[in-house]
Amino acid sequence: MRPPVAVAVPALASNVRPVRIASFNINGIKARLPRLLEWLEETRPAVACLQEIKSQDANFPADEFEKIGYKAIWHGQKSFNGVAILVDGQEPIEVQRGLPGDPEDDHARYIEADIGDLRVVNIYLPNGNPQPGPKFDYKLAWMARLRTRMAELYASERPTIVVGDFNVIPENKDVWSVKAMENDALMQPESRDAYARLLHDGWTDALDTLNPQGGIWTFWDYQAGAWQRDHGFRIDHMLLSPECADRLLSAGVDKEYRGREKASDHAPVWVELA
């Protein structure tokens, strides 16, 4: 299997302190809590964005994160979906809960917060399978609403990072087998086009920018020995506004955490900003 992925620029000046922002689809916070706490303590990101917490608000284990120094905000939902933002040593200031644009959409897939001068947006984009059908239509409509919100954030000129499980494989280089995934909603032309529009609007895909050759996976299915055979793909992304892209130092995947006992089917991804 490939070694852990991390690409960096030359060393910083001694007076510049990098900030690590990470994203992790935890696939059930109750089931993965020991692994999650382990990862937080071992890697210590300044900001950790979680997806698929699968927890109602009242059951979110905020006290467990407090014990190791993290403050949290979260947007939960019973049994599926759910997003959270954890910050090391300070309170995130919630800005937006739920993606604007559809008052009928009650899925817990979006949360936005200010952390110092940085705006952090954490998303869990709809999967869209099976396609075609209403779930795929919902995915595309959600992506259109996301683009509208991201355009507003872009226009503000505030340093902004939009992270999470986008459920989009952007290009063929981002999947172990094009043929195996060709009918999946994650790889349909409409999904890819919607993602490409975000980049054309001026957002920087941090992992792709520093790994232009591709071959970087963030997800391995539990079935068919996908992890053991390294049959994965890249669907967890970190998009930077120009103000953040100017501060990009490195980006990577904490791949080895996917191989631990009772792991999520995703690995954490991260960027470091000056």
Automatic annotation (TrEMBL):
Q: What is its EC number?
A: 3.1.11.2
Q: Please tell me whether the keyword Manganese is annotated for this protein.
A: yes
User: Where does this protein hold Mg(2+)?
Assistant: N25, E52, D165, N167, D265, H266
Q: Which PROSITE patterns match?
A: AP_NUCLEASE_F1_4
Q: Which CDD domains match?
A: ExoIII-like_AP-endo
Q: Where is this site: Interaction with DNA substrate?
A: H266
What are the catalytic residues? Y124, D165, H266
All copies of domain Endonuclease/exonuclease/phosphatase, residue ranges: 22-266
List this protein's GO terms for biological process.
DNA repair
Cofactor(s) needed for function: Mg(2+); Mn(2+)
Per the UniProt record, the site (Transition state stabilizer) maps to N167
Q: Does the keyword Cell membrane apply?
A: no
**Family statement drawn from the similarity comment of this UniProt entry:** Belongs to the DNA repair enzymes AP/ExoA family.
Protein name, per record: Exodeoxyribonuclease III
Where does this protein come from, organism-wise? Croceibacterium atlanticum
